[in-house]
Give the backbone structure.
Amino acid sequence: MKNPSKIIRAENLTWPGLARKDYKTDGSGFRDVSRYVLFGEREDESGLNMQTRYFEIGEGGYSSLERHRHPHTVVIAKGRGSMILGDRFVQLEAMDAIYIAPETVHQFHADRGEPMGFLCIVDRYRDRPEIPKNEAELAEWIPDPDVRKKARI
């Protein structure tokens, strides 16, 4: 059996030979986000039960506001920004590590004058995220009006 261990060399937080992908291919509620799937998607990585991904949000961009049943972890690798995490709006710095528990509303923002990049480790097989359907549902998800006004949907 061939040893599937490997190293994927980075060049300025890009990975030559790996496809840079759009964040999502459908929907709205996000702006200027791209991603790389580093591990957990290819056939020779079938032993992994998780994916390691890198996301980059351009200056002024944001991810979708969502929640889902699976947990995941995030480490800010580049830049600064902020995020909605449950009922809080918090500032983020490079190398901050975040645990997002199941059913926690979250959204990342590159709103501090620079792009923000982060590594995200998540289950390989997982449920699809929920996105609020309207302003009333958004108010249920985020009761605090000061936090809710930061949400981009």
